[in-house]
Amino acid sequence: MAKMVPTPPPGFDDLPVDEQIDFVQSLWDRIAATSEQVPVPEWHHDIIRERLAAYTANPGVGRSWTDVRADIARKLRER
Fold it and tell me: How many angstroms separate the CA atoms of 59 and 52, rounded?
């Protein structure tokens, strides 16, 4: 069973959405500052192993990150 998520601090629900997002972002930044303490779930490792095996079996099928990033940037500019 999943852990219960604590209720937000008093007044959180009264904040405008942009301030709620800023608050959540600041919480995430605090967690990210000590990312070495955040456990990596085993299923993440499983996916990495699967993708590495797929790449090793057929390295010519994928695209470089540079190409993918350029395509994303181009599509965002076209919006």
Answer: 9
Q: Is the pTM of this model over 0.90?
A: no
Distance of alpha carbon 39 from alpha carbon 46, whole angstroms: 14
Nearest to 5 by CA among 22, 26, 27: 27
pLDDT digits (tens, 9 = 90+) for 32-72: 999 889 899 999 999 999 999 999 999 888 888 999 999 99
SS3 42: helix
3 DSSP 8-state letter: P
CB-based contact 20:12 (threshold 8 Å): yes
